[in-house]
Amino acid sequence: MAKVLSVLLVLVLHSVVFDSLLEASPLKKEAQKIKHEYYVNTDLTAGKFSEAFCSRLSEKHNWNKVSSGISADETYTSVFKFKDESSHSWQCEVQISRVRDVSSNVMHVEMTMMQTFES
């Protein structure tokens, strides 16, 4: 027990003397993902709604579309890049699909954003 206390005391003194904190540094910098999910009631088809939604992101919010596609289950996926007000670069994947209900006019929108680090 005394040996453990001695080691801790040496580490604390080292931090005080050399004005440094002992902490592990990450091996790589990973971006945090931010997800937003919306349900929107509309009479538009999934394709028309996706087109309108993505146009709004491009025109109103100045996002640049990188790619887009549609899957076999009619999920519309678009990828955008943009910079926030602090000039940080971001990438966002937008997935839009109709809620699978016979009488549904509801679209499911999922936006996954991740900050990108440029070297």
Give structural notes.
This protein has 119 residues and is α+β, with helices and mostly antiparallel strands. 25% of the residues lie in helices and 37% in strands. The chain contains two helices and five strands. A hairpin with a 5-residue loop joins β2 (64-70) and β3. The longest helix has 16 residues, at 2-17. It is elongated. The relative contact order is 0.19.
What attributes characterize this protein structure?
alpha+beta, disordered N terminus, 2 helices, single chain, 119 residues
Low-confidence stretches: 1-26
Give the neighbour order of strands across the main sheet.
Answer: 1-5-4-3-2
Shape: elongated
The chain-level structural class is alpha+beta
Termini Cα gap = 47 Å
**Major sheet description:** 5 strands, antiparallel
Task: Give the helix tally.
Answer: 2
Question: Hey, roughly how much beta strand do the residues contain?
Answer: 35-45%
SSE order, one letter for each helix or strand = HEHEEEE
**What is the total tally of β strands?**
5
Chain-averaged pLDDT: 80
**Gyration radius over CA:** 24 Å
Helix content: 25-40%
Question: What's the short story on this structure?
Answer:
This protein has 119 residues and is α+β, with helices and mostly antiparallel strands.
What topology emerges from the helices and strands here?
Layout: H1 2-17, E1 33-41, H2 46-59, E2 64-70, E3 76-83, E4 89-98, E5 106-115
